[in-house]
Specification:
- The complex is a heterodimer of chains A (about 250) and B (about 625).
- In chain A, helix 3 runs antiparallel to helix 5 (about 180-190) and helix 5 (about 180-190) crosses helix 8 (about 235-250).
- The longest helix of chain A has 16 residues, at about 235-250.
- Chain A has eight helices and seven strands, in the order E-E-H-E-E-E-E-E-H-H-H-H-H-H-H.
- Chain A has two domains: about 5-115, Ubiquitin-like (UB roll); about 120-250, Orthogonal Bundle (Fumarate Reductase Iron-sulfur Protein, Chain B, domain 2), CATH 1.10.1060.
- Chain A has helices at about 35-50, 120-130, 150-160, 170, 180-190, 200-210, 225, 235-250, and strands spanning about 5-15, 20-30, 75, 75-80, 100-105, 115, 120.
- Chain A is of the alpha+beta class and about 250 residues long.
- A five-stranded mixed beta sheet of chain A has the order 2-1-5-3-4.
- Among the domains of chain B are: about 265-400, Flavocytochrome C3, Chain A, domain 1, CATH 3.90.700.10; about 475-595, Methane Monooxygenase Hydroxylase, Chain G, domain 1 (Up-down Bundle).
- Helices cover about 35% and strands about 15% of the residues of chain B.
- Chain B has helices at about 15-20, 45-55, 95-105, 110-130, 160-180, 245-250, 315-320, 330-340, 360-365, 365-385, 440-460, 475-490, 500-510, 520-540, 550-575, 600; strands spanning about 35-40, 60, 80, 155, 185, 190-195, 200-210, 215-220, 220-225, 255-260, 265-270, 290-295, 315, 355, 395-405, 405, 420, 605-610, 620-625.
- In chain B, the strands form five sheets. Chain B has a five-stranded parallel beta sheet. A five-stranded antiparallel beta sheet of chain B has the order 11-15-14-12-13.
- In chain B, helix 4 (about 110-130) crosses helix 11.
- Classes of the chains: A alpha+beta (about 250), B alpha+beta (about 625).
- Chains A and B meet through helix 1, helix 2 and helix 3 of A and helix 2, helix 4, helix 5, helix 10 and helix 11 of B.
């Protein structure tokens, strides 16, 4: 059954990348425990707008945990306290009346703040552009059933492909590494026979781009796996490393 | 205006082949001389951008999100149809064509639908080659499942995340072209207007959502892949930023808008639970493969579901539609749920929900099998409602989901404005008055990968383009109009928030232009929408300023367009003197409460032409000729 709770929010406010930010305090009153975390922010924002103040900027879109647009660090944890849950799918029943909630943006050199809780994650797109795909032009595909893939392999590839590109892994990592993101994409494509011809070049290009963009390296803290809203396993980082070592022998580059 | 659909002559099965032969070609070496703008990066826009760039065109691609991987196609759950007949059930191009025309209640264009069915199989080949991890059978070949309105298994799927996987495939192809230098990406841009030069679409004006700067972009052709307008209802299964502005602005520039009243209400969504609610969440139609829908037989039966014995339950879809049972098309299932609830048999706190029960399927196939098929959906349901659907039935209710209406396009997917092409949900073309499940992904990708890249070539090859740069007076004029509109929103300085107006608009439309419509209700809605629009321009408050990242301002612009568009929707509903598919006017129904079409007078597309602010738009019809299917009362009994 739904109840209502009162919360104190401490929210990171920052006008743009180049100016200093600060934590501001807001009251969130009469919040239904059935509301989502973002709906709670909507309520606070409507109140701010009525007071003539600028609402808190935050990224969000599908609000069903799949687009990867939303995300903030809530009480020190990317996407908040619930395991395997994006911020939009986190519901207020997981908070207690009277709680203080600290809300901050993703923190990483590779993700500059755009405004308040909004960051620029364009670096993740750049890593994909470096080679996170199978090179096939429209129209040149063979009949789909010509290449059988065992259901186990397809399932494993799907586990990796479930990544939503939200960047929580980077925010969680003490080194701000993007290895889980890159590992998931490399794994997804390297596991499938369609992805093998380019596997060596792909892993090299993506890894080099990741380094160039200022992401850190993995030192096995496993924070990424713990915070990933899609619960992507760090075994994909192990596969990324294996693929990278192998690529030294096979890459044309 | 007379509408020329430019459907090629000849037998249905040969039209597309003949048309491709007759279209002029742009020489491969000349393609680099043409620039194409694509707005939107869902399945249609992403696949079109990649395919056009592969052909050699220079593509500029725009999206509202921070990355082209996030458009709302990503949230499609259940699957994508294709006439592969891997299951040996007698499926064929003709059957997929027939099912789609029938499912759409005979209000779509035969030739377009047939072409869609023809290219469907190639989509599966394309996506598989890109590495989309479709579900597989034990032998390693692709698996299929059933979807509503169909008696063969032709739906391909990747768990409950098919849209995500297909979009990541298209996004990969697009990213490859970005690296190749053939696509320039413009993320966090919102299209504010279309630029017409000498009667042709030659560019767009956009707002950079980070800096607030207004930019001009010129090209030889403009492709809108900006999705549907379901958010006009405030609550829908659409993403928060989904909007009508791009297509509505094109309409104001002269593109005709077709069938705006055709809005699909999806039967299986998580019910509304509070005023603060910002969106509704879909539970995939695929659940109806194994879930059984029921309500208590007696109204007011408040017992918890497990205490209601079999004999006191009414599996009303199985009872009323024995042949299709729980897999009737969406419009039929939605209206049936509304009827049960309106008559007092609904369940849950509000009484506006029905049960979707998996107990029999779990007993039959085991929990593990159900978990494999629907695990992520069950998890999502539990996260939102705090109830475990493995143990207690889900509660569902219909919600606005998809819009069949859209900008009118001819067989080439070109609007009434030369050079303006419209693909995916943004056009009206293939689904008639009701879309079948797993057909949106098919249409978006058919348009983007296989149809538009060919037809746009025909347009460009015709030539006759003058040199148009962004210094052209038309750009100057359009930009200053767009900037003035932005400023006007900021200047109102009233006391009500944008969301407050949007919510009220949603209530009006859901009440009077939703699942069941009456002339009286629609007429009332017209007045209410007009009053609300007037109130908006007097009393809205939009905090912040224009040259900054300002999400309130973004929303205000979209809601301002929704407020104008809503009136068009209601007008279209009023003027269609029949019921068909999703459009159910209570004055036109059969004895069994099914929609009653009027094929003699209403077998047409209604397309609306803008006539100026506060003037009634002009209605033009495109008659629909059915030469290959017989028009029948749809029956799913």
């Amino acid at each position: 059954m739904s109840r209502t709770i009162h919360l104190t929010l401490k929210v990171w406010r920052q006008d743009e990348a180049k100016v200093k930010g600060r934590l501001e305090t807001y009251d969130a009153r009469d919040i239904s425990t059935d509301a989502s975390f973002l709906e709670m922010l909507d309520i606070v924002n409507e109140q701010l707008a009525l007071e003539g103040k600028e609402p808190i900027a935050f990224d969000h879109d599908c609000r069903e945990g799949i687009c990867g647009m939303c995300g903030a660090v809530v009480n020190g944890r990317p996407h908040g306290p619930e395991k395997g849950t994006t911020l939009c799918q986190l519901h207020m029943r997981h908070f207690k009346d009277g709680d203080t909630v600290v809300i901050e943006p993703w923190r990483s050199r590779a993700f500059p703040v755009v405004r308040d809780l909004v960051v620029d994650r364009g670096a993740l797109d750049k890593i994909i552009q470096a080679g996170g795909y199978i090179s096939i032009n429209t129209g040149s595909a063979p009949e789909a059933n010509n290449l059988p893939v065992s259901p186990e392999t397809a399932e494993l590839a799907m586990d990796a492909a479930a990544c939503i590109g939200c960047g929580a892994c980077v925010a969680a990592c003490p080194n701000a590494a993007a290895m889980l993101f890159v590992g998931a994409k490399v794994s997804h494509l390297a596991l499938l026979p369609q992805g093998r011809p380019e596997a060596a070049d792909r892993v090299r290009s993506m890894t080099l781009e990741m380094d160039r963009l200022g992401f850190g390296a993995c030192s096995n803290h496993k924070e990424c796996e713990a915070e990933c809203p899609k619960e992507i396993s760090i075994s994909h980082i192990a596969r990324l490393n294996r693929e990278f070592f192998k690529s030294g022998f096979f890459s044309r580059k | 205006m007379t509408l020329n659909a430019r459907v090629p002559d000849g037998p249905l099965a040969e039209k597309w082949d003949r048309h491709r032969f007759e279209l002029k070609l742009v020489n491969p070496a000349n393609k680099r001389r043409y620039d194409v703008i694509v707005v939107g990066t869902g399945l249609a826009g992403g696949s079109a951008s990649a395919s056009l760039a592969e052909l050699g065109y220079n593509v500029k691609t725009f999206c509202i999100q921070d990355s082209p991987r996030r458009a709302h196609s990503i949230a499609a759950q259940g699957g994508i149809n294709a006439a592969k007949d891997y299951t040996n059930e007698g499926d064929s191009i003709r059957r997929l064509f027939y099912d789609t025309v029938k499912g759409g209640d005979y209000r779509s264009r035969e030739a377009n639908v047939y072409r869609l069915a023809q290219v469907s199989a190639a989509i599966i080949d394309q996506c598989t080659a890109q590495g989309v991890p479709f579900a597989r059978e034990y032998g390693g070949l692709l698996a299929n499942r059933s979807f509503g309105g169909v008696q063969v298994q032709r739906t391909f799927y990747a768990r409950g995340q098919t849209g995500q996987q297909l979009l990541l495939g298209a996004y990969g192809a697009l990213s490859r072209q970005v690296k190749a230098g053939k696509v320039t990406l413009y993320p966090r841009r919102e299209m504010l207007d279309l630029v017409m030069v000498d009667g042709r679409a030659r560019g767009i004006v956009v707002r950079d959502l980070v800096t607030g700067r207004i930019e001009r972009h010129a090209a030889h052709a403009v492709v809108l892949a900006t999705g549907g307008y379901g958010n006009v209802f405030y609550l829908s299964t659409n993403a928060m930023s989904s909007n009508v502005s791009a297509t509505y602005r094109a309409y104001r520039r002269g593109a005709l808008f077709a069938n705006p009243c055709f809005t699909q209400i999806h039967p299986t969504c998580i019910p509304v639970h509070g005023d603060y609610q910002s969106k509704l969440t879909l539970m995939s139609e695929s659940l109806r493969n194994d879930g059984r829908i029921w309500v208590p037989k007696t109204s007011g039966d408040k017992r918890p579901p497990h205490e209601i014995p079999e004999e006191d339950r009414d599996y009303y879809l199985e009872r009323r539609y024995p042949a299709f049972g729980n897999l009737v098309p969406r419009d039929v299932a939605s209206r049936a749920a509304k009827r049960e609830c309106d008559q007092g048999r609904g369940v849950g706190e509000t009484g506006y929900a029905v049960y979707l029960d998996f107990a029999d399927a779990i007993r039959r196939d085991g929990r593990e099998s159900i978990e494999r098929k629907y695990g992520n959906l069950f998890q999502m349901y539990e996260r939102i409602t705090a109830e475990n659907p493995y143990e207690t039935p889900m509660m569902i209710y219909p919600a606005v989901h998809y819009t069949m209406g859209g900008l009118w396009v001819d067989y080439n997917l070109m609007s009434t404005l030369p050079g303006l092409f419209v693909i995916g949900e943004a056009n009206f073309s293939d689904h008639g008055a009701n879309r079948l499940g797993a057909s949106a992904l098919m249409q978006g990708l058919a348009d983007g990968y296989f149809i538009l890249p060919q037809t746009i070539g025909g347009y460009l090859a015709e030539g006759g383009f003058s040199d148009v740069a962004i210094e052209n007076p038309a750009f100057e004029q359009t930009e200053s109009e767009a900037a003035a509109r932005v400023q006007r929103l900021l200047d109102v300085g009233g006391r009500r928030t944008v969301d407050d107006f949007h919510r009220e608009l949603g209530h009006i439309l859901w009440e009077y232009c939703g699942m069941a419509r009456t002339d009286e209700g629609l007429t009332k809605a017209q007045g209410l929408v007009q009053e609300l629009r007037a109130a908006f321009w007097k009393d809205v408050t939009v905090p912040g300023s224009a040259p900054t990242f300002n999400q309130s301002l973004e929303k205000a612009g979209r809601v301002a367009d929704f407020l104008e568009f809503a009136e068009l929707m209601v007008l279209d509903a009023l003027t269609r003197r029949e019921s068909c598919g999703c459009h159910f006017n209570e004055a036109f129904q059969t004895q069994d409460n099914e929609p009653l079409r009027d094929d003699e007078h209403c077998c047409h597309v209604a397309a609306w032409e803008y006539a100026g602010q506060d003037r009634e738009p002009t209605r033009t019809i495109e008659p629909l000729a059915f030469e290959n299917v017989e028009l029948k009362q749809r029956s799913y009994k």
